[in-house]
Design goal:
about 260 residues; alpha+beta; Arylamine N-acetyltransferase fold; eight-stranded antiparallel β-sheet; five-stranded antiparallel β-sheet; about 25% helix; globular; acetyltransferase activity; transferase
Length: about 260
């Protein structure tokens, strides 16, 4: 059964529960550090895009598996649970849809990614604990300004009627993460995903590729297949983990917080 106290204990949070920006920032980062992104259950290529249609999660069942059971999850699970937590704490939370940048440099279907935004004191903040990454560790303000977090910069640019989230690590160029419209969604909107993906090449969205990621205090670890990206204080290091023992060690580090 979904329980706020158990959830906050999982995140290691014992601070104020008021619906403030400070609380949101703390919970967002703690969530990314405590609960990994892990698509192991959904990486079966035969299922194709079926996993993208399961956004209407059973909160209690997902809570038992992720928060109590210790496994990771994907965007609709992690952001769905986080959305419920924020609502229980009194935050004004809305659902957003995003199209993630693909391996060919193009954006995927418009409803491919589900995340949230939170309105606080008249400002809108993006909250996303369900993107493999690398991504923002704390909420981002919806504005034109460049925002820096732990050595990385983020900005939202207008392009073809969308807001495009861009990220830049130290010494690198701006790169696209995903695009979205500031259009509040309902879970039922995801029924439209079926025709949207009918002609979309599955290989472009890494179906069948295992993806694991988790944040730490000043960065993030992202493993896509055997390609390992570690970001620390804005500095990126990329390796291909060819040795099985090293690969298993990195998977363990990501999926077991505290290791």
């Amino acid at each position: 059964m979904f329980d706020v106290d158990t959830y906050l204990t999982k995140l290691g949070y014992s601070g104020p529960r008021a619906a403030t920006l400070e609380t949101l920032r703390d919970l967002h980062k703690r969530h990314l550090m405590a609960i990994p992104f892990d698509n192991s259950l959904n990486a079966d290529a035969e299922r194709g895009f079926d996993v993208l249609l399961e956004v209407d999660i059973d909160d209690d069942a997902t809570f038992r598996a992720v928060v109590e059971g210790g496994r990771g999850g994907v965007c609709y699970e992690l952001n769905g649970l986080f959305r419920r937590l924020l609502q229980e704490l009194g935050f004004d939370v809305k659902i957003l849809a995003g199209a993630v940048i693909q391996v060919n440099g193009e954006f995927g279907p418009e409803l491919e990614h589900i995340f949230s935004c939170v309105e606080i004191d008249g400002e809108v903040w993006l909250a996303d604990v369900g993107l493999a990454g690398p991504s923002y560790l704390e909420p981002l303000r919806v504005s034109d300004e460049i925002q820096e977090q732990y050595g990385c910069q983020y900005r939202l640019v207008e392009e073809d009627g969308y807001r495009v989230l861009q990220r830049r690590s130290r010494g690198a160029e701006w790169s696209n993460s995903y695009r979205f419209k500031l259009q509040y969604r309902e879970i039922t909107d995801w029924k439209q995903l079926v025709p949207d993906i009918a002609e979309f090449p599955l290989e472009q969205v890494l179906i069948g590729t295992r993806i694991h990621s988790r944040a730490f205090d000043n960065g993030q670890m992202v493993l896509i297949g055997k390609r390992y990206l570690r970001v620390e204080d804005g500095k990126e290091e990329i390796k291909v983990l060819a040795r099985p023992a090293v690969f298993r060690e990195v998977v363990s580090q990501i999926l077991t917080p505290g290791v």
